[in-house]
């Protein structure tokens, strides 16, 4: 029973926090409440992070479309990659080369037409193999590192930025409660100091992560 009561109190406190943040956000949108602004350097870092995410996602998508124009096959390859299952599949150039060789063999390697088909087919297969190797290298050395960045560092940055925004809403809500107090309110003042400390700490964590994007650009 005691555990259930504690769980209920925890849920109630969490719901109250969410509600307070929603009220603060709404008042800011309506222009009836002040909003703590981050410094210009932080905003510049945040904007660079947004641009990095946007262009990285576009570059990954466009590169994958060039390597494999068929979207259904791209989805299949992505799923197999997640399952760590490699699929060796002939590309269209290799398939064309194989058909040419088969046709040339059927017509007869000793005939001019058959001989020509076999030679061109072999050349097509070599081109297809080079194309496949090029795709493998691009995927390994370009696409995969960018995907790891998006799935790793960028997800962490977005998570910490959302947390910072929540801390900022908590701080401004606490400031508003203090301003609205009709008399000196030690509890409200303590709440502001606590929220300010949490906000400053989260801002520093987020700033360090955002500054780390510079090293990402350098690799």
Automatic annotation (TrEMBL):
Span of domain BAR: 27-219
Gene Ontology cellular component annotations, sorted alphabetically: cytoplasm
Residue runs in coiled coils: 157-184
Protein's UniProt name: Putative sh3 domain protein sh3glb
Keywords annotated in UniProt: Coiled coil
Highest taxon of source: Eukaryota
């Amino acid at each position: 029973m005691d555990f259930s009561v504690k769980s209920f109190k925890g849920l109630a406190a969490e719901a109250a926090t969410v509600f307070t943040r929603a009220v603060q956000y709404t008042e800011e949108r309506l222009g009836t409440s002040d909003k703590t602004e981050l410094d210009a350097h932080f905003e510049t870092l945040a904007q660079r992070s947004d641009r990095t995410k946007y262009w990285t996602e576009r570059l990954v998508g466009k590169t994958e479309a060039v390597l494999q124009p068929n979207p259904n096959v791209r989805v299949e390859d992505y799923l197999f990659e997640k399952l760590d299952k490699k699929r060796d599949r002939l590309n269209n150039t290799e398939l064309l080369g194989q058909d040419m060789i088969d046709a040339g063999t059927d017509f007869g390697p000793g005939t001019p037409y058959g001989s020509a088909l076999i030679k061109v087919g072999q050349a097509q297969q070599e081109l297809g193999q080079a194309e496949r190797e090029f795709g493998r290298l691009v995927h390994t050395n370009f696409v995969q590192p960018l995907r790891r960045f998006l799935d790793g560092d960028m997800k962490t940055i977005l998570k910490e930025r959302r947390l910072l925004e929540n801390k900022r809403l908590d701080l401004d809500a606490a400031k508003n409660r203090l301003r609205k107090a009709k008399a000196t309110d030690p509890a409200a003042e303590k709440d502001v100091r606590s929220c300010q400390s949490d906000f400053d700490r989260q801002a520093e964590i987020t700033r360090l992560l955002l500054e780390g994007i510079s090293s990402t650009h350098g690799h």
